[in-house]
Design goal:
Blueprint (H helix, E strand, L loop, with lengths): L1 H41 L1 H14 L2 H5 L2 H14 L3 H36 L6 H11 L1 H9 L1 H9 L3 H25 L3 H10 L3 H13 L10 H31 L2 H37 L3 H37 L11 H16 L1 H9 L7 H22 L1 H26 L5 H25 L7 H26 L1 H13 L1
Helix pairs in contact: 1-2, 1-9, 1-13, 2-6, 2-12, 2-13, 4-5, 4-8, 4-12, 4-13, 5-6, 5-7, 5-8, 6-10, 7-10, 8-9, 9-10, 9-11, 12-17, 12-18, 13-14, 13-15, 13-16, 14-15, 14-16, 14-19, 14-20, 15-18, 16-18, 17-18, 19-20
Length: 504
């Protein structure tokens, strides 16, 4: 019996990783293809309008108030203990809450659709913008009303592959139907309506799977403490929201839709890289949560070491190369589109740096979430959000895109420092200086690599041929650099992985 359980966990872990990788590949294709279709058929202003409205719609995360994180953290222990009564109570409570959020979101969408065309000079008529807001809200409404409760259960129980494969199916169908849509009748409203309605597949598949694999007690009593804890996660939610959503809102208010489009196109690259990182990170997080729930200090330390090892190598490798290549890529991607200036070298580098800082703290951030320490992170989260907004507002008028990027970086640096510090309170024998020594090693090797690139392999032309050749050289160079850095900073982790692979 024990052997069966071990084998099952091993298989689930591998399937989660593979399914996450497939999902993130699909995400990357979707993020690159759909905006390109919009830019080609409808122009930069429409692309900027879609990006702007989407960001304003994402304010639903503020209404949600961090419940998703709280639910995930609350599910780890009852799943470990097979406490079906507790699991059922959490699911029932969260379902009721998400449906209330869906109703509030519906009202918010109508208000936004009414006032957005009046507040911002988009250059489009009122009905065009009003209807586009409604169309773009469909997928979020479906998810909150019918999908999120079961999705949280599947992710917490290491069954994220069900979520990943479902989302991959939606993305692939979305890409195919987008091409068909513009080929038959080029309309941004029809395109977004089709891709939004595809999200009905989520509740259909999730409900079917949960019904067949779980014994959810529909007569279970609500978990009264669950929603009380959501306010502890509210500030955390705000901080994540500020990072992901406010830059475009600020640019919409203080600049124009063409600038918003530029930001969104550059974000395609950072979002794609974040997806690759998430493909691995999402498979690790449940292990961190369950290890912490078991109260085994040695196990949680070991898993945190591996999480840091993976994070340092993925983030530094991907984002260092991205800092060098993001602007050349965007220039190739937007070739033939002349209604906005997409050659923004400094902004591209700063955007990449801000995202790298955001991700490098993920092992420590997810440790705090797994430990259900939302209340303790409230003030730091508000401080991060405040720093980001204030600095962005100070610089946006004079520096535009660069200004909002500087604001994001300042907020991220503060939060990184705090999260590393807070981890020492959660795990014994985990001093802060170890993290910073590792960080310093990787920064030094990064600077050496950048120096070599500057003098020996600079990218000189914005064309596909030179881009591919230079990308291969950079990939090989920094692969070697960070392998050496791993030997210096993560020697024990490398030995563990070596032994693990030999055993397999």
């Amino acid at each position: 019996m024990v052997l069966v359980i071990v084998v099952a966990k091993f298989i689930h872990s591998r399937i989660n990783i593979i399914s996450n990788i497939i999902l993130q590949i699909a995400n990357i294709f979707s993020w690159f293809i759909i905006p390109k279709i919009i830019l080609t058929y409808f122009g930069s202003d429409v692309n900027g309008l879609v990006s702007s409205i989407t960001q304003f719609l994402s304010y639903i995360t503020l209404i949600e108030g961090g419940v998703t994180g709280v639910v995930m953290a609350s599910l780890y222990k009852p799943l470990v203990n097979n406490d079906n009564k507790k699991i059922s109570a959490i699911i029932k409570t969260s379902q009721k809450f998400y449906k209330k959020v869906g109703i509030i979101f519906s009202i918010y969408c109508l208000i936004l659709a009414t006032v957005y065309p009046l507040l911002f000079n988009t250059g489009f008529n009122y009905l065009y913008v009003f209807s586009l807001v409604i169309v773009l809200s469909i997928n979020l409404l479906i998810q909150y009303m019918y999908s999120l409760a079961f999705r949280n259960l599947l992710n917490a129980d290491k069954k994220g592959y069900v979520v990943s494969f479902t989302q991959t199916l939606i993305l692939v169908l979305g890409i195919l139907l987008s091409y068909i849509s513009v080929a038959i009748y080029p309309s941004i409203h029809i395109l977004k309506l089709i891709t939004g309605l595809l999200f009905v597949l989520q509740p259909i598949i999730y409900n079917k799977y949960v019904k067949n694999h779980y014994n959810i007690m529909h007569d279970a009593k609500d978990d009264k403490n669950l929603l009380k804890n959501r306010w502890n996660g509210f500030a955390i939610n705000i901080a994540a929201f500020i990072h992901n959503c406010t830059d475009i809102a600020i640019l919409t208010i203080f600049t124009n839709l063409a600038t918003v489009s530029i930001y969104s196109v550059y974000s395609i690259v950072t979002n794609g890289l974040r997806s690759i990182f998430n493909a691995v990170s999402n498979a690790i997080v449940p292990n961190i949560g369950q290890a912490y729930a078991s109260e085994n200090t040695e196990e949680i330390n070991s898993k945190m070491d591996l999480y840091e090892f993976v994070t340092f190598n993925l983030v530094f490798y991907m984002f260092t190369i991205a800092a060098l290549l993001i602007t050349p890529f965007v220039m190739i991607y937007t070739h033939g589109i002349n209604d906005a200036n997409y050659n923004q070298l400094i902004f591209g580098v700063l955007l990449v740096v801000s995202e790298a800082i955001y991700l490098i703290k993920f092992p420590h951030l997810n440790l705090s979430y797994s430990a259900n320490k939302f209340k303790e992170l409230t003030i730091p989260a508000f401080l991060e959000a405040g720093i980001n907004i204030i600095v962005s507002l100070v610089f946006v008028s004079k520096l535009g895109l660069i200004g909002v990027a500087i604001g994001t970086i300042c907020g991220m640096i503060y939060r990184l420092i705090y999260q590393v510090y807070f981890s020492t309170k959660l795990i014994k024998n985990r001093p802060q200086k170890v993290f910073y020594k590792k960080l310093l090693v990787y920064i030094i090797f990064t600077l050496i690599g950048l120096t070599l690139c500057y003098y020996f392999v600079p990218i000189s032309k914005f064309n596909i041929g030179s881009f591919i050749k230079t990308s291969i050289v950079y990939a090989c160079l920094f692969g070697v650099m960070y392998f050496v850095a791993s030997i210096v900073a993560f020697n024990n982790e490398l030995k563990y992985l070596k032994n693990y692979l030999i055993k397999r």
